[in-house]
Amino acid sequence: MASGVAVADECLRVYDEIKMGHQWLYIIYRVSEDLRSIIVEEKAGHDKTYSDFVARLKQAEAKRQCRYAVFDVRFMHNDIPQERLAFFLWSPDTATIKQKMIYTSSKQALRNKMRGIHAEIQCTEDADLTMSNILERICSKLPLIQF
C-alpha cells in the first residue's frame, strides 16, 4: 500500500487471467471514488481493439482523471509471433494535480504485485499511446537473434 491506497484482490485475479490464459486483451484499473483502493474498471475481451483501449483512456482524460492499464500486445518479431504484457500509467496533462499525485504515488503498490510485465509505459499525451511507440518500447527489450 502506498499513499493509503490498497490493491483490491480482484486486480490480481484479473491480472493472472491475462498473464496466464491471455483471457483479456486489456484491463483498465482506477482508484476508487473514496481513494482507498485500486479496482478493476474494465476487462476487455478479444473482440476489442487497441483503438478501443485508447478510447477508454481518453474517456478518463475527458474527466481529468488518470488510469492504470495492462495490454496484451501481440506482434511479429523476426517472423515469430510474440505476446508481451505492457503496463500503462495514463496520466494526461489535463488530469488534476490530485489525480496525478494519487496515481503516481500508488503505482508501485500495484506494479509490485504484477510479475511478468515486459514494459512499463508512462503516457501523458496522445503520441505516447501510438502503437508504434508501444512496439518500440517492447522490442527494445527483446533479445536479438544472431545466426
Automatic annotation (TrEMBL):
The answer to whether keyword Membrane applies is no
Set out the biological process GO terms recorded for this chain's protein. Answer: actin filament depolymerization
Quote the Gene3D superfamilies the UniProt record gives: Severin
Recorded hits in InterPro entries, A to Z, give: ADF-H, ADF-H/Gelsolin-like_dom_sf, ADF/Cofilin
Q: Where is the ADF-H domain?
A: 4-139
Molecular function terms from GO:
actin binding
NAD: present as a keyword of the record? no
- List cellular component terms (GO): actin cytoskeleton
SUPFAM superfamilies registered for this protein in UniProt: Actin depolymerizing proteins
Alphabetized, the UniProt keywords read: Actin-binding
Q: Which is an annotated Pfam family here?
A: Cofilin_ADF
Family that this chain belongs to: Belongs to the actin-binding proteins ADF family.
Question: Which named protein is this?
Answer: ADF-H domain-containing protein
Q: Which organism is it from?
A: Lymnaea stagnalis
